[in-house]
Amino acid sequence: MDFHALRDIVVLFGLALFTVVVLRRFNFPSIIGFLITGLLAGPYALGFIRDSHQVEQMAEYGVVLLLFTIGIEFSLKELMRIRHMVLIGGGLQLVLTIAAVAGLGAVGGFPLTQAVFFGFLVALSSTAILMKLMMDAGEMDTPQGKAALGILIFQDLCIVPLMLFTPFLAGGGKGLAEIAIVSAKAGAVIIGAHYGARFVVPWLFEQVVKTRSRELFVLSIIFIGMGTAWLTAQVGLSLALGAFIAGLAISESEYSHQALSDIMPFREAFMSLFFISVGMLLKPAILFKFPLLLLGLVLSIVVVKALLTSAVGLALGLPMRIALIAGLSLAQIGEFSFVLSRSGLKYGLLTPETYQLFLAASIATMALTPLCMKLAGPVADFMTATLPHSWTRGRKSLAQNGEKVGYQDHVIIVGYGVNGKNLARILKNLEIPRVIVETNPFTVRSLRREGEEIIFGDASKPEILEHAGIRDARIVVVAISDAAASRRIAAQARKMHPSIHVIVRTRYLLEMEPLFRLGVNEVIPEEFETSVEILFRVLKRFLIPQDVIENCIADVRRDGYEMLRSVSKRHSHAVGIAGFLSGAEIGSFRVRRKAPIEGESLRGGMLRSRSGATVVAIKRGDEITANPDPVWTFQEGDTALLLATPEQMRAAAKLFEPV
Predict the structure, then answer these.
(1) CA distance 470 to 492
(2) I need a labelling partner for 355 at 20 to 30 A (CA). Which of 211, 237, 319, 638 fits?
(3) Where are its TM segments located (predicted)?
(4) Longest dimension (CA), the chain
(5) 637 or 190: which carries more pLDDT confidence?
């Protein structure tokens, strides 16, 4: 039997393990290690792999699986919400990049048709690399992540028309008629996927789940993803686009999270092969033959793409910071450009030497992507700090937020994701004044139509916080996914209002220390809260009584947050009253019908004797009584403000609940 394919995979993975481990010691991303692995193992270097065709096929499966998982994590509703970024943003980026590169190529002496083809190659960015880096960094939900994704989706949609235009540029092909036919097929596939997501996929998963077979569930996921990709390829579209459409169909079902977790290991393995196969295509000799030309080419590609994409973002009304970060993130050449380049080589639009120059420049831009994303934040911050605010805040129709809000003692919510949305909804129900600050222009438009008090802008800018009424606010809640932006916003809020209460949501415990140094009062790490929710669900499955579960969770919260508070105290911006109440907490409880405390007076001593808590104030209706007299009698609906230790709070809580 022939085991050459298996030998090649073993060699590649073994070399990749060594290369990536060595590079990770120097904090280089894994992607660079995979590219170097392919360069070393390929037929033009050490020659471990002579025939790279099989590896390239498996690498294409990796791209398919990546787009499939992105589609599952996304949703049709979300896609419709950023349709302006997909259609207008993606269209402008593609057209402007092709025009700019074609113009530069024509000035450089290339024929116009060849210069336009160069524009085709440069206009596409790498979905595989950028989405992986953004997912690893947790930036998919950020405005810049959604802007980049919208443009990438449009680029993927345009791969087939560009492929069909290639022979047209070379003087062959059927031209516009063939493009129109394929576009009609694409529309039919998308419509079919829409109705499949609503009817076929839920029914199929329901039948599979009834069998209680995980193997069958995994097979059904692969069948839907690969099957849709194959069908789209049959009608002339790309495999990756079909996989993305299949992922969108699954994302609308209740089984999407399980599907994503089951498919993830396959994606990671095949994606590494994709980056390795890209490295295999390059002849290292070209690097030594034209070093200065390659350097200039790489810099030109990065600068042109970053500037044009940033300009598109600004034209759509995004703040300069978000537009610049998205622009630098999309400054590489994409994986589908390699497919397009082979077509150009076939039709004579590229010579073998220009093909290798293109490969070298493309791989270099891919390898530079992690660095570009790392530098994007500081570069954007420098530009927004240097230029006037009127230039950086976004389009006038969105940046013009009217008069300064007239609220007093309100809550400022930065970010309208899941956390911000839930908080705003509850505050609205409780009639607590709130102001939302959001950088997604489409969210701003939608909420304004609903009558919500929302401001478009970057909350790290003093003008935006001033407009939100920072000096009259009681609390600022930062509920965004961007850790660096959260730190800037917290610092700016503390600077403008030294006594305001700042609460920041963060992903990991490691991000807490820098936030507390900036004077943040409370940091809510999702990592810790997830552990509490896991504990609750585990104990629930063992039928542990509810009161025992609540006591266990209270113990975990007390121990965990005592540790977090100790970090907070080390970096506290001011001692305040908390310094005198070490170990104590302030909490409020409402008297419920038939609660033990209902009808009891303070003089009776039930609250003090059975819990040890002290009443600070009582609210009845709209009237607040501080330090109430001993004759005060609790009634249903009263809200008592108590001072107590965590243990005393738990004991007091039982007195306010129905027996």
Answers:
(1) 10
(2) 237
(3) 6-23, 30-49, 61-79, 86-110, 116-135, 147-170, 176-195, 216-249, 269-286, 293-316
(4) 98
(5) 637
